[in-house]
Amino acid sequence: IMLHSTLALSLLLIAVSSNFAMAIKKEKRAPQTLSRGWGDEITWVQTYEEGLYQAKKSNKPLMVIHHLEDCQYCQALKKAFAENEEIQEMAQNNFVMLNLMHETTDKNLSPDGQYVPRIMFVDPSLTVRADITGRYSNRLYTYEPQDIPFLIENMKKALRLIQTEL
């Protein structure tokens, strides 16, 4: 009987600990869903509508990143974006952040086409800032990994515009 109860107890402990380990794993993976690899420390909103609401409420600009999972340019930009401390810190503290793998119904978010990656800013008055552009005249709102310093400048510009205009 002693052996039997020890075995039962150790099986119970194994079951409990593996459930516990799974709970911990789930806990760890939770933020990944909305971040999709762009930065797990950043608080991401789920929808464009929620982003607009939060931008207005918090008086922070909304940064919208359009991307696709199987796009190599998006993957490369995502890696550079996620690894850049200055971007991550600004994104977490000064912006409402949204990354989308589908287009919204707001045509203002695709002024020159529906390409990816595409990053646009919306100010707290809910105006899409078509004036904050990247370096490429054929795709105004795209950025490549080497454009990260340029993206940082544009993030700062989006923040400055709020101070001066609103």
Task: Briefly summarize what is shown.
This protein is mainly α and 166 residues long. The chain contains six helices and three strands, in the order αααβααββα. The protein has a domain at 48-105 and 114-137 and 144-159: 3-Layer(aba) Sandwich (Glutaredoxin), CATH 3.40.30.10.
List keywords for this structure.
166 residues, mainly alpha, three-stranded mixed beta sheet, 6 helices, 50% helix, Thioredoxin-like_sf, dystroglycan binding
What is the topology?
Layout: H1 2-29, H2 32-35, H3 48-58, E1 62-66, H4 72-83, H5 85-94, E2 96-100, E3 118-122, H6 148-165
Parallel strand pairs: 1-2
Antiparallel strand pairs: 1-3
Helix pairs in contact: 5-6
Organism: Fregata magnificens
InterPro entries: AGR/TXD, Thioredoxin-like_sf
Signal peptide: 1-23
Please provide a written account of the structure.
The longest helix is centred in the N-terminal third of the chain and has 28 residues, at 2-29. The chain has six helices and three strands, in the order αααβααββα. The chain is mainly alpha-helical and 166 residues long. It has a domain at 48-105 and 114-137 and 144-159: Glutaredoxin (3-Layer(aba) Sandwich), CATH 3.40.30. Helix content is 50%, strand content 9%.
Please tell me the CATH architecture of the domain at 48-105 and 114-137 and 144-159 by its name. Answer: 3-Layer(aba) Sandwich
Strand order of the largest sheet: 2-1-3
CATH superfamily of the domain at 48-105 and 114-137 and 144-159: Glutaredoxin
Low-confidence stretches: 24-32
Distance between the termini: 77 Å
Summarize the main sheet: 3 strands, mixed
Q: What is the structural class?
A: mainly alpha
> What is the number of helical segments per DSSP (H or I, 4+ residues)?
6
Helix content: 40-55%
The topology string of helices and strands comes to HHHEHHEEH
Task: Compute the number of strand runs.
Answer: 3
Mean pLDDT over all positions: 87
The fraction of residues in strands falls at 5-15%
CATH topology descriptor of the domain at 48-105 and 114-137 and 144-159 = Glutaredoxin
What's the CATH C level of the domain at 48-105 and 114-137 and 144-159? Alpha Beta
Rg measurement, Å: 21 Å
Shape label: globular
